[in-house]
Amino acid sequence: MKKYDLVVVGGGISGMTATLAALENGIKNVLLIEREETLGGILNQCIHNGFGKSYLEEDVTGPEFVELIRIKLSKYDFHIKKKTTVLNISDDRVITYVNEKDGIRDIKSKVVILATGCRERYTGNVLAPTSKFTGIFTIGNAHRFINLEGLLPGKNPVIIANSKWAVILARRIEIEGGKVASLIINKDSGVVLSKEEREIIKDFNINLLENAKLLEIEGNKRINKVKVLDKSIGEIKKISCDSLFLSVGYYPELGVVKKLNLEIDNELKTPKVNNYQTSKEWLFACGNIIYGKECIDMNDINGYDAGVIASQYILKEIE
Question: Is the pTM of this model over 0.90?
Fold first, then answer.
């Protein structure tokens, strides 16, 4: 069985910067595992400024930050496996993964850093039947289609907002030649628009319903209309559209460590950490997996500090 000093699970910006920190701190036998074909994760689709300030002392776009870290990593000799899915991590530090080349394989590591991030997950927070029609997407999927695939999933969407990402998406739709039918905010979700977000909405003349609730979806195979309750005036409105973009929940990717029975934060549903160290002393976590739903309100997430702390633990073990 192949053995490593450090295995980093997840090649988004948190996993990349954690790996870089370990290499810069003298850890030699390092493996970075990423399930996608490219590194960088969700940051590849974040083409606006606002990332990397704690590391670069200036804001850059998501892809710029990813490329900068990729260049720094290229100067080191370490192992990387892309298009690889981790199936399990056991109590005896065995990592089971699968990919096309190796099949299913076991490896062992002194230390593991989890940087598996969060995934959008529909939790029934929108009561209208969303599986009945085509043209319905999550905010994250819509961002991905536009920024990575170069496709516009809808030219005249209704957008349900519970974070800044919905406002950024609305702006992107307008820039690409579409027209947002309505940006809907349900105050019960706790959303508070910032001054900058209000300026975006005003500059692009986006129809904003700031205290409304989605009631019903209409269409013929594809969505063509939504019914909403405008709570500010107590009136039900019908809005014509060709698509619906939903803000849904973000939940940490914990499947690979469920059997470890880590201590979990009941509110965030994330692993409890102390200085990035989980309840298993050899298992560290960083990035969105420890921030959970709060990650959607955070700009500058990376795993460099976790990589430093994990390196110190490894070097003590070697001694």
Answer: no
